[in-house]
């Protein structure tokens, strides 16, 4: 994982990325959000969509208001329902009258602390988009691309007019995405990566980190990285039974201790996928090869 760039960060500023796309950075930096969540505004001035409005933070909402100005908001679109992505949707919808569209609602009760943002219990979409369905506005079309894995309800949005793909947390511009069971699924995540690799998007705009201008190259590297992690797990299990936590110091040397839980959960997601494929077995918290 790369560290954040030096401050100052462009928090609250509307950054024009291309004619149809503006970006506003929320003030919620953390070890899991990098410099913060990036909300995107798609439109030329006659009507726009807001993608991943972010946390329900008054300062961020004021920055979005300033970026939108007098423009009509046609839709508020959410890639998934973690609390750093969707909570501002309800407040923004009340202010603008725009419908909330995109991912399905999803709330899980966790038995322990999460390594990423918890789920947004306030999210109530007016329309759930299925894979291939489109939302249109003046001069723009956003098509849903289902990418489960990080969470089961994750969507990306393809801007058909420019070849851009808004990737939420499925692909980030600074780190690989965390996959946390029970809802995060490594098998689904790998299939979603393969799905994007088969596409020909020009650029990725992630919710965290900079734009990705060589998308297929990055996706190919991410697939290779995950396969390498899987091979490491199998190799270490060849030395004897392990708990998920046992893998972290062996596989993630020098990792910030704040991220150890995320690494452990990622290992667990790999182990569950290997178990489904009949390659490993578990007894309680102990994993071993078959």
From TrEMBL:
SMART domains with a match to the protein in the record: Lactamase_B
InterPro entries in UniProt: LACTB2_WH, Metallo-B-lactamas, RibonucZ/Hydroxyglut_hydro, Sec-metab_biosynth-thioest, WH-like_DNA-bd_sf
Top-level taxon of origin: Bacteria
Entry-linked SUPFAM superfamilies: Metallo-hydrolase/oxidoreductase (SSF56281)
Every Metallo-beta-lactamase domain range: 36-208
Transmembrane segments: none
Protein's UniProt name: MBL fold metallo-hydrolase
Top-level taxonomy: Bacteria, Pseudomonadati, Pseudomonadota, Alphaproteobacteria, Sphingomonadales
């Amino acid at each position: 994982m790369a560290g954040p760039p030096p401050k100052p960060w462009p928090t609250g500023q509307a950054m024009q990325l291309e004619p149809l796309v503006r970006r506003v950075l929320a003030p919620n930096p953390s070890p899991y959000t990098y410099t913060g969540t990036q909300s995107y505004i798609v439109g030329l001035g006659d009507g726009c969509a807001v993608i991943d409005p972010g946390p329900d933070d008054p300062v961020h909402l004021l920055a979005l208001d300033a970026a939108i100005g007098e423009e009509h908001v046609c839709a508020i679109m959410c890639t998934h329902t973690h609390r750093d992505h969707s909570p501002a949707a309800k407040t923004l919808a009340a202010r603008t009258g725009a419908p909330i569209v995109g991912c399905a609602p999803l709330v899980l009760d966790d038995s322990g602390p999460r390594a990423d943002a918890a789920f947004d219990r306030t999210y109530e979409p007016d329309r759930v988009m299925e894979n291939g369905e489109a939302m249109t506005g003046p001069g723009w079309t956003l098509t849903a691309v289902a990418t489960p894995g990080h969470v089961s309800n994750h969507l990306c949005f393809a801007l058909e007019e420019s070849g851009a793909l808004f990737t939420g947390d499925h692909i980030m511009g600074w780190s690989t995405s965390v996959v946390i069971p029970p809802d995060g699924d490594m098998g689904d995540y790998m299939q979603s990566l393969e799905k994007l690799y088969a596409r020909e998007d020009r650029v990725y705009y992630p919710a965290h980190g900079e734009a990705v201008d060589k998308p297929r190259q990055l996706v190919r590297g991410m697939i290779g990285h995950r396969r390498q992690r899987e091979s490491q797990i199998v190799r270490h299990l060849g030395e004897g039974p392990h708990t998920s936590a046992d893998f972290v110091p062996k596989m993630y040397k020098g990792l910030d201790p704040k991220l150890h839980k995320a690494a452990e959960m990622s290992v667990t997601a790999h182990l569950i996928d290997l178990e489904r494929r009949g390659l490993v077995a578990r007894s309680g918290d102990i994993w071993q090869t078959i």
